[in-house]
Amino acid sequence: MPKRILQGTVVSDKNEKTVVVKVERRFTHPVMKKTVRMSKNYKAHDENNAHKVGDIVLIQESKPISKDKRWVVVTSDQA
C-alpha cells in the first residue's frame, strides 16, 4: 500500500528535529452544499532542522518515530 503524501505549511519549528505542519483540506458539505475548509496539524520529522515557519513542505507517512510523530518531511515545495 502506498504511503500518503500531504502538502502543508510549517507553523512551528521550535522542537529539535521536528516541525509542526498545518494541512488544510477543502470539501463540499454533504447537506449545506457549501465549500468547507478544515485543517489539521501534523508533527513531522525534520532531520537537519532545515525548514522554518512559513515554508510549504511535503510530508510522507512513516513508521512511528515518537509518541506523536508518524510523518517525515520529504521535500520543500517552493513553487
From TrEMBL:
SUPFAM superfamilies per UniProt: Nucleic acid-binding proteins
Keyword field: Ribonucleoprotein, Ribosomal protein, RNA-binding, rRNA-binding
Pfam families: Ribosomal_S17
One GO cellular component term: ribosome
PROSITE patterns: RIBOSOMAL_S17 (PS00056)
Role noted for this protein: One of the primary rRNA binding proteins, it binds specifically to the 5'-end of 16S ribosomal RNA.
Subunit description: Part of the 30S ribosomal subunit.
Similarity remark: Belongs to the universal ribosomal protein uS17 family.
Protein name: Small ribosomal subunit protein uS17
Organism (species): Aminobacter niigataensis
Gene: rpsQ
